[in-house]
Specification:
By secondary structure, this protein is an alpha+beta fold. The chain is built from four helices and four strands.
Amino acid sequence: MYDVIIEHPAIDDRTYSADGPGQLRDIVWGIARAQGKPVTDDLKMITEVGALRSACDITGEGVLKVHDITVTVRDAEPCEGHQGEGGVLLGGPEFCDGSCKPRTPFRKPQLVDLACALDDAELDATGGCGRCGLEVGQMCAGCGKCNCHTHETCVRPTGEA
């Protein structure tokens, strides 16, 4: 099992889990799609994800840059209580099945969340407002503010529309 950390300069880091190579590959494909840049060379991406997984298996951590996002893969943190003879003797499983430590998979809702966060960050960086989805040219004509602000005192300019 792997912990997958997604890092982008404009959003908070996000951590997901992957049970194996297939889920890890799905996460990397999803990250590319969330940035609006789908994978066009499947073989190259399969090779890169394989190298990422191998680096993690050998050194404990692997890093891959997918466009603007850095993907760091680490061995999943073991949960407490499932290791050693004592845990098994007390009725616990020999190996952890992951049920005692909540792990977040990367599925469609997480993909949509990531795509929205990246879109909002891009709007904020270009002078728009990610919270209300307005680009810089769509702000109030009177005060230049977005929909997050009230406009009761705003005087709209008269003249040509």
